[in-house]
């Protein structure tokens, strides 16, 4: 009789990494705010979209990445569910496939714009981790794919859900700028796995450019889009919101100086204290666009 060993629920939950769901859920909410539309009678759409962005699409990307990164994780983080054996056999792959199908079904139920965005996001998630593309082997392309999935597509989906169609050009511009900034956030995340990436031939930016070079790129890529957002908000007549983002950027700049002095030791520190200021600026810009009527 064939015996099948199923993973524990706790191992599956750890594989799906709930702590990583926040950025796309936040971006979806920012897009919904930026649309300028009322939630009257459509609050369920916001809730459904937030669940899709985090516990479904983002969780799928985490499962896919852990399956195809199992050899790297065995070096960097052997306690993870797959290399530790708590996700036996090919169960990690099966969870990734199941969550992909669940995500597509939920997106289809919400609407065509959401299905299109979710489909693109899921395609990028698989392309990021899985061969033959495996975009993560090039830190430039891989981080761009992650930034687009985590921030841009989630923002656009939130705006489209609330607008009932295509988002405004202004909303698309903000989504694009924060996607670029998220490229730097992904680079920060790569500092923790330098050793394994070097051994497995993964060309993350800390491996390609060295820790100091990658730290400079991460800071610049996070800061410059925020400068562009400030300029846009001033052009839209939202001086107070622009000033708020400028203050958040100034605080980030002070933290960046400390991070650049010891990037390997302080990458996690900056992720914990500097990145929240970046994402808070997203919400400020969303409210600025809302105050401008969405500039539709």
Structural features, described:
There is one protein chain. With 296 residues, the protein is an all-alpha fold. The protein has one domain (10-295). Helices cover 77% and strands 0% of the residues. It contains 13 helices and no strands. Helix 2 crosses helix 7 (139-163), helix 3 packs antiparallel against helix 5 and helix 4 packs across helix 9 (194-200). The longest helix is centred in the C-terminal third of the chain and has 31 residues, at 205-235. It is globular. It starts with 8 loop residues before the first helix and ends in a 5-residue tail after the last helix. 50% of the residues are buried.
Secondary structure: elements and pairs:
Elements: H1 9-16, H2 22-34, H3 43-68, H4 70-76, H5 91-110, H6 112-129, H7 139-163, H8 169-190, H9 194-200, H10 205-235, H11 239-261, H12 263-273, H13 275-291
Helix pairs in contact: 2-3, 2-7, 2-13, 3-5, 3-6, 3-7, 4-9, 5-6, 6-7, 7-8, 8-10, 8-13, 10-11, 10-13, 11-12, 11-13
Instruction: Tell me, rounded to a whole number, the average pLDDT.
Output: 92
Amino-to-carboxy terminus distance? 63 Å
Gyration radius, to the nearest Å?
Answer: 19 Å
Question: Could you give the order of the helices and strands?
Answer: HHHHHHHHHHHHH
Overall, the morphology is globular
Total domain units:
1
Largest sheet: none
Q: If helices are DSSP runs of H or I spanning 4 or more residues, what is the number of helices?
A: 13
Q: Which structural category fits the helices and strands? A: mainly alpha
Q: What is the β-strand count?
A: 0
**How much beta, percentage-wise?**
under 5%
